[in-house]
Amino acid sequence: xxxxxxxLVGCCCASxxxxxxxxxxxxxxxxxxxxxxxxxxxxxxxxxxxxxxxxQLEQSIADHKMGLVAQASASRGAAxxxxxxxxxxxxxxxxxxxxxxxxxxxxxxxxxxPLRLYVTENADGTASVTYRLPSAVFAxxxxxxxxxxAKELDVIFQNIVHAAARN
Length: 167
Known about the structure:
Layout: E1 5-6, H1 14-26, E2 41-49, H2 50-63, E3 67-72, H3 74-80, E4 88-94, H4 96-105, E5 115-121, E6 126-132, H5 134-138, H6 144-166
Parallel strand pairs: 1-3
Antiparallel strand pairs: 2-6, 3-4, 4-5, 5-6
Helix pairs in contact: 2-6
């Protein structure tokens, strides 16, 4: 799907990062509302290590014909400064045909793309992936067309995550 744009995120907000990491590490295997501030948040715990899960997600994104638009990692940014924190990476995923459909219906909804997969390293060395269901992301726009598109994306994101988690 083209070249992936990689960039590192340093310390944007220490307390915000700590809250995000705590939520990611403390969540159950599947959580629709485990203290997350937004509805439709799903967390899948895996038996895979952090780097392995990222690689499997990247492959699964490609296998499901979606585009990995960018990555951001506070842990990589911290490591570049000599600071060690648990691994975390955000994979930003979308595809142009979905972008065109979304923008045709709502330019305001453009703020929601790309959709994100958040990978966190657990204390036991395994990793989890957290994401918001696209149907939850686009629901506030109150559009049947966006709802239909989001339902398609729900299935794609579920398939991406589950394929990566079981490999």
